[in-house]
Every structure is written in C-alpha cells, then in structure tokens.
Amino acid sequence: MEHALSPATLSELRRTRPYPAVSVLTPTHRREPENAQDRVRLRNVVAEAKRQLESDPAVTRERRADVAGQLDRALAEIDLAHTEDGLVIFAAPGEHQVWSLARPVPERVVLSDTFLTRNLVSAQAAERPFWVLSLSADQVALWSGGADRVTEARTAGFPLTRRQENFDAERQEQIGDLPSTFLDEDTRHFLREAVNALGRLLRTDPRPLYVTGEQAALSALDELGGVSREAVRIPHGGLSHGTPDAVWQAVRPTVAAEARSRVDTVGRELESALGRKAFAAGVDEVWLSAREGRVRLLAVEENYRVTVRDDGDHLVPAASGDLDAREDIVDEIVEQCLETGAEVRFVPDGTLGDADGIAGVLRY
To answer: Fewer CB atoms near the end CB (10 Å): N or C, the chain?
Structure first.
C-alpha cells in the first residue's frame, strides 16, 4: 500500500486516463472492535464499483473486465491489519494502486477519466511529512517522517555508503578513536555528495528537514552550506545505521516542539487578520473565499468534519446520504487552497474557538 504522496506522484495520479478511472474510498479503523467491520465494508464498496461498471453503457465489455480485474488485484493486496483511518483504491485499464491514509474518508465510488485525489492531498497536508537525514562518516541515511512514525526512504540514491578498507567510522566515533574524522577531506567530500543528492530531492519533493548526527558531523555540514542550511539540527549520533523506531524517538521531541510553535504562529496570524478584516471563518465563508483564490493561510482543526450541500449561493448543513450531500467538503477546501498557493495548517481540536473548526487569513 502507498503512503507517500510526492508532487510527481500527485501529477501522475491527476493525468487523464482512458475511461473509466475508478476511485473507491472507504473508512478503515486501526483498532478493535471498530476494525471488525472493515473487511465486509471494503468488499461491499468494491462490489458497488463493479456494479457501476456493469451498468455504465459507456464502458465496453473489454474495459469492464480489465478494470474489474484490477479491482480484484487491489483487493488481494490489502492487509487490513496495517491500515490507518482511510483506504483509497484507484483502478483503470491496465493499472491499480492502493493508498492507506492517516485521515478518514467518506465511503464513495467515482467513475471518471481522472482519479479522485482530494482526500490524498488533504491527508498529506494533515500529516505534514518531513525528511530526516542521519549522518555518519561512512553512511548517510534518509528517512521519511509523518504524524507518528518514520520509515527508511530508499530514494535519490540514499542511503549513501562510503566504502573503505578497514574503515568502521561508526564504531571508532563511539569509542573515541576518530576525533577528527569530519575534518578529513574524503569525509567532507562524501558529505558534500549527500548534500547535493538531498538538494535534488528537495527540488522535486520539498519538505521540512531534520538532520541528526554527532556534533562534529553537524558542524561539518554547517560549513558545507547548501540546502541543509535551513534544516533543524538534532545532535544524536548512531542513527545512520539505526532502526526507524530509534530515529523516531530521537526526532519526536523536536518535531512536537516545532508543531506547537506552528500552532502558536497560526493563532497569532488569525488574530491579526481578524483585526485587519482579512479573516474568514466557518465552512461556507471559507469555501467562498477559497473558490475566489483569496485564502493565504487555511487553518483546520484536526478532526473537523461537516456534511453540506450547495443551495446555489451558500453551503448549508446536510445529512450523510442526502441527495447532493458533500461529505468531504473540508478536503475539497484544503485541495482548493493548496492549488491557489495557500499555506494549510491542521491544528488541535478546539484551537479555533468560535471559528467552528475552520478559518482563513485572506489575501485581500
């Protein structure tokens, strides 16, 4: 199952495909007893997708069989023991993908000539992914981080390994036999290669960056400059050969402190915008501003959900299952704001007070 949504991946998902491109969404659960319903619910929503394929006169018999087969293959790949809060299946002629999301999604089947990506985009924004670069004199590892974990990222040439006979820099650093390792020109050249590889990655998949390593390694990196200049330094060695859990435990306090700081900054920006009359609050007002491209900063409480319908002029409350009900309007707003260059921040529940779960700082 897929987790990481890079700009290149999103662009590929959004390209036009031969009809039908099927998007199947269903909520999932991480724990018992709620997850007992997930298997039946998943099979039912896939069966509904097949029913829609069968009844759509625009779908040829050949394509119907192809896409139905893709749905079956996707279903066989899903391990419900490792799902998060939502599941998305994409299936089109000759291809399928399965995405696990750390954000709930409404149950839905959509047949179109493009995949429905708004829920992936919103989940990505809520998770606020980041990179961790772990340095040592013989290896530089890259980790992809999210809301509650990191995983090793084998991309952009990482991990970079320096091979040298009888060279065990990690052990020598630990026992103190190599005090000047990072002053060595070969080591600095190795770190420069890592910085260059990182720069190429950040151009295609920009994220906040944390760097771990012994203080000597961090100092050497400072002297090299480049894209790592804006990174948050964490003086903790031994992680270039570490486990994902060890890396997560090392970076977690700093990541949490950065998150708290961002929430405080959002609060100050919203308060200032209110005084300047450049403020929108509530789903209807924010949606109208988002459609006009006026939102510069969008703040959403983490578990804010609302179901609405469009009466032509405004969004009005609706019940789930109502005709024309829009159950993922919050994700629509997030995607719309990101597409118009807005900054999107998810904040703890209750942070926005009277704003009713969603608020924006306006450009004008």
So the answer is: C
Q: In whole angstroms, what is the distance from residue 83 CA to residue 191 CA?
A: 37
| Count of CA atoms in the C-beta half-sphere (13 A) of 325 | 13
Could you give the CA distance from residue 337 to residue 333 in angstroms, rounded to a whole number? 6
Q: What is the pTM of this model?
A: 0.80
Q: Is 184 left (phi over 0), alpha (psi -120 to 50) or beta?
A: beta
Alpha-carbon gap, residue 109 to 25, rounded angstroms: 6
Nearest Cα neighbor of 56 from 109, 116, 114 is 109
Question: Which segments of the chain does DSSP mark as H helices, in order?
Answer: 7-14, 38-55, 61-77, 118-127, 169-175, 185-204, 215-224, 244-275, 283-291, 329-339
pLDDT digits (tens, 9 = 90+) for 180-210: 567 778 888 999 999 999 999 999 999 999 9
Instruction: In whole angstroms, give the CA distance from residue 241 to residue 324.
Output: 53
pLDDT tier, 174 (very low <50, low <70, confident <90, very high otherwise): low
Tell how far CA 273 is from the center of its chain.
Answer: 28
Q: Which helix (H) or strand (E) holds 178?
A: none
Instruction: Report the distance separating Cα 92 and Cα 21, nearest Å.
Output: 5
Of 273, 288, 279, 270, the closest CA to residue 332 belongs to: 288
